[in-house]
Design a protein that fits this description.
CATH superfamily: Rieske [2Fe-2S] iron-sulphur domain
Shape: globular
Oligomer: single chain
Number of helices: 2
Number of domains: 1
Number of strands: 10
Strand order of the largest sheet: 1-10-9-4-3-2
Radius of gyration: 19 Å
Order of helices and strands: HEEEEEEEEEEH
Strand content: 25-35%
Largest sheet: 6 strands, antiparallel
Bound molecules: FE2/S2 (inorganic) cluster
Structural class: mainly beta
Distance between the termini: 37 Å
Length: 185
């Protein structure tokens, strides 16, 4: 049985866990996530977005576990057999889709331990956008249905409906004022 959103929020507040961290947020248009890494910031946290050889999108903390270089300044490299890795721009460590380091150029015969890994976050693709959740809910509450996926947008499935992904736009106002403006039509 799914818990209610209200009770989930109350539990989250009681545990001092930021609810925002546990929600899905759109971070980039899928059309903009191609062959090169993309840097974004979500709730103050720098992320690197990239696609592996199987077309799976990834969102990792934009920090190499070796010396802290920004992985978004690196590149997606062919690893053979249709696989792709994300290579750090500093010493060239390569990370596979799960985040684990699988190749160190200075020690090509060495197998890095699992602890040598980038920090991966959950992603989902929906409505032409890539969505990221920084923290999986862990409040002891059963996850409300509303939080298991990016918010539904039913009109997008209607025949004749055309979706247009636009923005982002920088607007110098508060979030409530912005929402009010969109609803005031
Ligand atoms: S800082 Fe990334 S490989 Fe050294």
């Amino acid at each position: 049985m799914q818990g209610s959103l209200f009770h989930f929020v109350v539990r989250s507040l009681a545990m001092k866990t930021s609810l925002e961290l546990m929600l899905w947020h759109p971070v980039v248009a899928l059309a903009d996530l191609q062959a090169t890494p993309v840097a974004v910031t979500l709730l103050g946290q720098p992320l690197v977005l990239w696609r592996d050889g199987e077309g799976q999108a990834h969102a990792w903390t934009d920090r190499c576990p070796h010396r802290g270089a920004r992985l978004s300044l690196g590149q997606v490299v062919d690893a053979g057999c249709g696989l792709k890795h994300l290579a750090c721009p500093y010493h060239g460590w390569q990370f596979a889709s799960g985040g684990r380091c699988v190749h160190v150029p200075a020690l090509p015969d060495w197998s890095p331990p699992p602890s040598h890994a980038a920090q991966a976050h959950e992603v989902q693709e929906a409505h032409g956008l890539l969505w990221v959740r920084l923290v999986a809910p862990d409040t002891g509450a059963t996850l409300p249905t509303e939080l298991t996926r990016p918010p539904p947008f039913e009109p997008a499935s209607l025949a004749g409906w055309r979706s247009v992904v636009c923005g982002p736009y920088a607007v110098a106002t508060s979030a409530p004022r912005l929402v009010e403006n969109f609803l005031d039509i």
